[in-house]
Amino acid sequence: MNERKGPVTLKIILIGDSGVGKSSFMNRYVNHRFTNMYRATVGTDFLSKTVNIDGDTVTLQIWDTAGTERFQSLGTPLYRGAHCCMLVFDVTSKASFSALDLWRKEFLVQGEPQDPSDFPFIVLGNKTDLSDREVSGRSALQWCEEIGAEYFEGSAKEDLEVEKPFQRAAQRGLQQVIYFDFMFVFKRHQRHQMSMFNMFIF
Ligand SMILES: Nc1nc2c(ncn2[C@@H]2O[C@H](COP(=O)(O)OP(=O)(O)OP(=O)(O)O)[C@@H](O)[C@H]2O)c(=O)[nH]1
Ligand SMILES: [Mg+2]
């Protein structure tokens, strides 16, 4: 447990092709609801949920994006300030899995995270309730190892393994906040020491 005072809000962003189930996964997690009806997300939307992460109370601000809008300029302000990015695909669609490479690259370009090589990505395979699977857990895991992401799979429809990826995203997001807070204090301390040193010398 850390010494943090006051609530922390973590921005978690869901991206991936249209129809993979981003909105469904978020709705299952936050509202415990699911519908078979498909209503494409227009623009962006977020839902909040307060959770306890290793003794810290944090508010997750989960941003759901429209899969159809990948090549529009929405990304820039939307991706900025994210603490964790969830790359979502449909396990019955190889194309949606292959597309994640571009989604990830675009996130890194437009979101400009402070430390791109260490930014936390969670890859999420949805629709495991379906039998016509095109992407095996093994190939998803292999790609995750290559890019340094963590892999989860589940089903928004059947409420399978929905909590875990969000719990992990929150943990990773919180680590980001703690790390950058620490670096901020550390650098300020270093600057202070340098100015004391200069005063002493001159
Ligand atoms: N069988 C099955 N269907 C699902 C699951 N999750 C979502 N769906 C269905 O897949 C369709 C698309 O789901 P959405 O959650 O709207 O997909 P999305 O990724 O938000 O799509 P965009 O908003 O267009 O980017 C809907 O008809 C859902 O009911 C799942 O776990 N299993
Ligand atoms: Mg949607």
Automatic annotation (TrEMBL):
The keyword GTP-binding applies. InterPro entries: P-loop_NTPase, Small_GTP-bd, Small_GTPase. PROSITE patterns: RAB (PS51419), RAS (PS51421). Pfam families: Ras. SMART domains: RAB (SM00175), RAN (SM00176), RAS (SM00173), RHO (SM00174). GO terms for biological process: endosome to lysosome transport; phagosome-lysosome fusion; protein transport; regulation of immune system process. It is a lipid-anchor. Signal peptide: none annotated. Keywords: GTP-binding, Lipoprotein, Nucleotide-binding, Prenylation, Protein transport, Transport. Its main location: membrane. SUPFAM superfamilies: P-loop containing nucleoside triphosphate hydrolases. It is found in: Cytoplasmic vesicle, Phagosome membrane. Belongs to the small GTPase superfamily. Rab family. PANTHER family: RAB FAMILY, SI:DKEY-13A21.4. Controls vesicular trafficking from endosomes to the trans-Golgi network (TGN). Acts as a negative regulator of TLR9 signaling and can suppress TLR9-triggered TNFA, IL6, and IFNB production in macrophages by promoting TLR9 lysosomal degradation. Also negatively regulates TLR4 signaling in macrophages by promoting lysosomal degradation of TLR4. Promotes megakaryocytic differentiation by increasing NF-kappa-B-dependent IL6 production and subsequently enhancing the association of STAT3 with GATA1. Not involved in the regulation of the EGF- and EGFR degradation pathway. This is Ras-related protein Rab-7b. It comes from Seriola dumerili.
